Amino acid sequence: MTFLQCRGTIGEGVVPEHARFTVMSDEPENNSDRSYNNRLHPEDQEKVDDFINRGVNSVERKPFKPGRMMFLLIVVVTGLSLLSQFLARYAGID
After folding, report:
1. Among residues 40, 38, 11, 6, which one has the least CA distance to residue 23?
2. pLDDT tens digits, 25-39
3. pTM over 0.70
4. What secondary structure does DSSP assign to 15-57, as a single string?
């Protein structure tokens, strides 16, 4: 379906020639070649893969643990709150 065919549902108006596009189906066709899913040419994809596998990008990292981050955030905020209350009482502010 082209943009011009569905423009009545979106809004009325004139669509310039350069603004036309087609809606792609989520279901793949029965092609044995799966390269239609790739957005890069094979040469470019090879360059990307080479870059990812060298230098800093090649280091395996531990999985992200959101529970640990939340715990650390609570500890830091609580510690800063207690410190600020201590400083306020030390300064004589009640």
Report:
1. 6
2. 555 555 565 655 667
3. no
4. --GGG--BPPPSSPPS-S-GGGG-SS-HHHHHHHHHHHTSGGG
